[in-house]
């Protein structure tokens, strides 16, 4: 009988799951950024105001989504995997049914709070801007059903089945973007209406997308149902029949709420304080301050979240795997999985962030038109994205290993650091100040989490360091090549031509991918991180 290597199995599961979630996240994020091009054109001269209004509404919506789902999808994924590892499939199904009831109730409660409390939310988070009230109310309708969408994804992920989640995520985004673009075109170009109505309909697209996403997941669930029933019938009978599932769900969910809201809380703090603090150091109109905030808080943020979503995909995949290993109590396997997860994170995130830094000029010009300040904002944000991604992955690992309180404590420390340094950083760096403060706060969080994780599960830091060194060197080679293309191209071509920027962006993306891909395949670094299956790719492209 062949010997099964547990590390290989978990590595394959991690890679397969990450591939699905990465594909879903990347395509969704790219689509969510591409819509800006026609949306901006149809908004015309109202675009800056419309963009700032959209950003304010969506940041509030993001916080409410995290609160209304209450971290339950992540908790469900974690606990389903836990019970599956113990062969208690029926217990996991009971947990899911109770979670679904809670999600329906949470959607109703928080959707109502957001809708009827829109004026209050506007006063706190949008500087009292009355235009934001109908935008917040339109997003409140989506909050009604997003919790159901989220828990269905969490259940599938508990079985390490990432394909339905990834597909539903992509289709959800397609439906949302199609609706918002159609509505914007009709209001602005056909009716000749105002930008506020167009923004309201654009944000209402979140409800349309969520409805379609739920439909996709229900179809996948129906197809999987016979297998789930068989597992439940053949699995071990639960030892405790009187478990308090509601208590168990919320005990595991609270950390997911706090840590899942981490990046959003940093963004909301910037949104709530940026204008007031900036007025302490510079003389600027509200419109100018809104433009500064929009550059880093919405436009640059939307682009870097494309690559931060890579780490989110990995964390979603890692949680059920690590939770299952923890339930089995094999410490060595946990250490190996932590090493694999961190190496995969750096293998993808470092070249992605440096690549975005390198292509920042054609990328920004393609989506938002040429703006030197915006390009600098994107470059700075690209580097910070490594810390944002690392926070996402490390907090997920700690939660999967039931170190919830520690993860929350470290995040709170980082948030306090961010709050303390915000004023001096804005004083020194003005509009770049919030980004500097975020990098300091997130840096503290990541350091504390990494140190504690290594003390609990001493994974192989020497191996990780060697591989990260190779990743950095190969990423810098790619970076230099792209930077050279930029220098040559924009020396002879104007900065503001959008079509030319698209062409340059495509060329640089292809060149960068080929250089990094060739180097990691030639040196077999990809094999060490992603497993022996990479050898097939090398043979296919004839790299020895």
TrEMBL record:
The keyword Membrane applies. It holds the Pfam family Polysacc_synt. The keyword Manganese does not apply. Keywords: Cell membrane, Membrane, Transmembrane, Transmembrane helix. InterPro entries: PG_synth_SpoVB, Poly_Biosynth_Transport, Polysacc_synth. It is found in: Cell membrane. It comes from the Bacteria. It is a multi-pass membrane protein. CDD domains: MATE_SpoVB_like. The chain crosses the membrane at residues 20-40, 60-81, 102-124, 136-156, 177-198, 204-222, 249-269, 303-323, 344-364, 376-401, 408-426, 432-450, 471-493, 499-521. This is Polysaccharide biosynthesis C-terminal domain-containing protein.
């Amino acid at each position: 009988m062949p010997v099964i290597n547990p590390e290989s199995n978990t590595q394959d599961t991690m890679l397969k799951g990450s591939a699905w979630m990465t594909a879903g996240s990347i395509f969704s994020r790219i689509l969510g950024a591409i819509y800006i091009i026609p949306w901006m054109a149809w908004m015309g001269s109202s675009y800056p105001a419309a963009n700032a209004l959209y950003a304010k509404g969506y940041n509030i919506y993001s916080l409410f989504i995290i609160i209304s789902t209450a971290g339950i999808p992540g908790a469900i994924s974690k606990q389903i995997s836990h019970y599956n590892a113990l062969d208690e499939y029926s217990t996991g199904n009971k947990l899911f049914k109770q979670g679904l009831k809670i999600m329906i109730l949470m959607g109703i409660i928080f959707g109502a709070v957001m809708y009827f409390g829109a004026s209050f939310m506007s006063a706190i988070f949008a500087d009292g801007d009355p235009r934001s009230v109908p935008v917040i109310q339109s997003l409140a309708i989506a909050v009604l059903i997003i919790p159901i969408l989220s828990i269905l994804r969490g259940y599938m992920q508990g079985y390490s089945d990432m394909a339905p989640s990834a597909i539903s995520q992509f289709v959800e985004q397609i439906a949302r973007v199609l609706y918002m673009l159609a509505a914007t075109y009709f209001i602005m170009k056909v009716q000749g209406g105002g930008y506020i109505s167009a923004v309201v309909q654009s944000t209402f697209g979140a409800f349309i997308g969520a409805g379609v996403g739920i439909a996709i997941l229900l179809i996948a669930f129906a197809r999987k149902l016979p297998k789930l029933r068989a597992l439940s019938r053949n699995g071990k009978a639960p030892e405790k029949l009187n478990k308090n599932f509601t208590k168990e769900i919320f005990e595991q969910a609270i950390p997911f709420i706090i840590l899942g809201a981490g990046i959003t809380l940093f963004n909301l703090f910037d949104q709530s304080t940026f204008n007031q603090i900036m007025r302490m150091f510079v003389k600027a109109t509200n419109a100018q301050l809104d433009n500064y905030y929009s550059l880093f808080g919405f436009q640059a943020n939307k682009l870097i979240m494309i690559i931060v979503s890579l780490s989110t995909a990995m964390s979603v995949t890692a949680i059920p795997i690590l939770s299952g290993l923890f339930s089995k109590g094999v410490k060595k396997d946990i250490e190996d999985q932590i090493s694999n997860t961190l190496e995969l994170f750096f293998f993808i995130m470092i070249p992605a962030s440096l690549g975005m830094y390198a292509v920042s000029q054609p990328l920004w010009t393609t989506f938002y038109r040429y703006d030197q300040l915006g390009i600098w904002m994107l470059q700075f944000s690209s580097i910070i994205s490594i810390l944002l991604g690392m926070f996402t992955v490390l907090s997920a690992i700690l939660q999967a290993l039931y170190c919830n309180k520690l993860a929350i404590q470290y995040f709170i420390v980082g948030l306090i650091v961010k709050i303390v340094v915000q004023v001096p950083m804005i004083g020194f760096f003005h509009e770049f100040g919030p980004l500097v403060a975020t990098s300091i706060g997130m840096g503290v969080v990541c350091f504390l989490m990494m140190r504690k994780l290594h003390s609990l599960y001493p994974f192989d830091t020497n191996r990780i360091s060697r591989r990260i060194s190779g990743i950095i060197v190969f990423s810098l080679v790619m970076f230099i090549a792209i930077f050279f293309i930029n220098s040559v191209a924009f020396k002879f071509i104007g900065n503001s031509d959008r079509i030319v920027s698209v062409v340059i962006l495509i060329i640089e993306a292809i060149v960068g991918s080929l250089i990094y891909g060739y180097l990691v395949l030639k040196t077999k670094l990809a094999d060490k991180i992603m497993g022996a299956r990479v050898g097939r790719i090398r043979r296919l492209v004839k790299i020895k």
